């Protein structure tokens, strides 16, 4: 079964090819001049062949460039949508607690919206796929993701229910943290879950932990960057705790959001270890089952919390349904964008949209609540932000830099030789060399 790592590895950056369109055209012109000096008839045939080959290469490069530009434009829109949905759900949840202080009920209500994942996916399948299947056929095909027997009670208890609990814990702890501290600190600290994923992949998946010492300096740079990013995340958590002077509410809130980030990281790593990687339909079915199971099996918990006055409200009319639906809808939109966004853009851009929600929340907090942006808090946010961005780097980023520097050196060498030729044959060659170099540089 062909699978991809969209669900559990959103930070795997796509290495797009480097297009050197102008360089190809320059090489073809040189070849044409050499052939033209030998024989006129062969020059015409060679020029025609070169022209046809050049047109094919140009068509291919333009097509690739168009695809990349389209993905980049979709990526900009995706960054804005991911940032808006994540920051909007966080701010709206903070406002909801002023009227309806029930974090678990809000978690249960928002998670129940996951039932819409598979119907939404099937609607897209009907619109886009040339071979349309019935809902039952598509359901059975996606159930193969859980094994040859499909979706059985054993599979549900061992491969779905634990992830449903981790999902509930992640969102519940995140909402509890919003009741204690401001949204800027919560969103910044939650970005540490990428560093926790990296650390847990070492511990649970044993992903290249012991082999780091055996690598040379160049190949060690990728792992070293991820290690530094994890250290920065931990340092940011400590500094964020110190920013408010270790008060009880601050320490409790930071502990809750760090626990939420840890549950999110554990969810991703265990998903990779137990289920592997999922296709779009398989991920949609999985999330729909999680939402349905939450609605069916955990509906009694909000009722118990209501009658025990833990999450109590006077009447149903006092419940801010608009806020609840707003939070649930924004979280659902965020999960749709994160899980299915790689179909139209690069995964790295989706992750950038998540981290950009931190300054957005900071701007909102600056004008809506009394928050003290002291030096320690700003440094802590910057350190976490930097660690998150370092984890977005591809594993071979050091090799890419070495290759880029090598190409730049090779690019400068022909420029010097062509300049020397120009001094002996006349000003036209010098001007042509400069023109070709400026075009190639751009």
Automatic annotation (TrEMBL):
Q: Keyword Membrane on this protein?
A: yes
Domain of life, source organism: Eukaryota
Q: Which SUPFAM superfamilies match?
A: Multidrug resistance efflux transporter EmrE
Naming one, the record's GO cellular component terms include:
membrane
Taking every annotated instance into account, which residue ranges of this chain make up the domain EamA?
73-209
Q: Which segments cross the bilayer?
A: 72-93, 105-123, 156-174, 186-205, 226-243, 249-271, 283-307, 344-364, 376-393
Q: What are the protein's UniProt keywords? A: Membrane, Transmembrane, Transmembrane helix
Record flagged with keyword Transmembrane helix: yes
**Name recorded for this polypeptide:** EamA domain-containing protein
Organism lineage? Eukaryota, Metazoa, Chordata, Craniata, Vertebrata
